[in-house]
Amino acid sequence: MDFQPFDTRGYPTLPVAEGYGEWAETYEDTVFDLLDIRLLERLTAVDWPASRRAADLACGTGRTGAWLKAAGVGRIDGIDLTPEMLEKARAKGVHDRLVLGDLAATGFETGAYDLVTACLVDEHLADLRPLYREAHRLLAPGGRFVLVGYHPHFLMLGIVTHFDRADGDPVAIRSHVHLTGDHVAAAHAAGFRLLEMVENVVDDDWRDVKPKWHAKYRHHPASFALVWVAEG
């Protein structure tokens, strides 16, 4: 579903590559670990140190890659649509290879990965199926696909992915609402089986980093993580 029917703020909306290109300089000042990294830390269905090779789809500024490397993952290849985000990731030095391109058509080697990750990107995809097909193609049988997403519940409350421009005006990035059933359908069609799902609610840990969200949306789910296993 397109986000537009749920829009309560009416921010100007940018295409994905243009939006993240503009946001890259301040991205890590505004996206916080409670939204996504905390979910990765809670997962039990992934043996991170046993993952010898990972594909970091929509790697952005390298936040996920840096966490994966610290968690013991071996070689990490990253791909992103936005040159400005890749420049930030390159400066971190945690990826073995970084490529500018489409996460649904990476060109990476078939069946070469133990682990594929895609964090905070699914809401920008009109169709989930190409992402799941590409993740399955990249994985060896038994490999894990970890997807961390912005919760559809939050999008349906009208809270679109957005940032403040240099002049202080807010701008949104084009988004779509995917229900859990949409993920299940796309994953099953690609050959995945669900191992784990974790949801992240706005709790008291958010009070200092997002006081307005804490005051208004306490107990609401803000993000989620899915762990899929690739079946042969």
Do you know the CATH architecture? Answer: 3-Layer(aba) Sandwich
Radius of gyration: 17 Å
Give the CA-based shape: globular
Q: How are the strands of the biggest sheet laid out side by side? A: 4-3-2-5-6-10-9
- The CATH topology: Rossmann fold
Largest sheet: 7 strands, mixed
Q: What is the mean predicted local confidence, pLDDT?
A: 96
CATH level-1 class: Alpha Beta
How far apart lie the N and C ends? 31 Å
* Poorly predicted sequence stretches spanning 5 or more consecutive residues: none
Q: What is the assigned CATH homologous superfamily?
A: Vaccinia Virus protein VP39
Q: Which series of helices and strands comes N to C? A: EHHHEHEHEEHEHEEHEHE
Instruction: Count all strands and give the number.
Output: 10
How many structural domains does the protein architecture include?
Answer: 1
Structural class: alpha/beta
The helix count comes to 9
Fraction of residues in helices?
25-40%
Proportion in β-strands: 25-35%
Gist of the model:
With 232 residues, the protein is of the alpha/beta class. Helices cover 30% and strands 27% of the residues.
Question: Mind explaining what this structure looks like?
Answer:
With 232 residues, this protein is of the alpha/beta class. The protein has one domain (4-230): Rossmann fold, CATH 3.40.50.150. 30% of the residues lie in helices and 27% in strands. It has nine helices and ten strands. The chain has helices spanning 16-23, 27-30, 37-42, 63-70, 83-92, 129-138, 152-156, 180-190, 211-217, and strands at residues 13-14, 53-57, 75-80, 97-100, 113-119, 139-150, 162-164, 170-173, 192-201, 221-230. The strands form two sheets. It has a seven-stranded mixed sheet with strand order 4-3-2-5-6-10-9, with helices on both faces. A three-stranded mixed sheet has the order 1-8-7. The longest helix has 11 residues, at 180-190. The radius of gyration is 17 Å and the shape is globular.
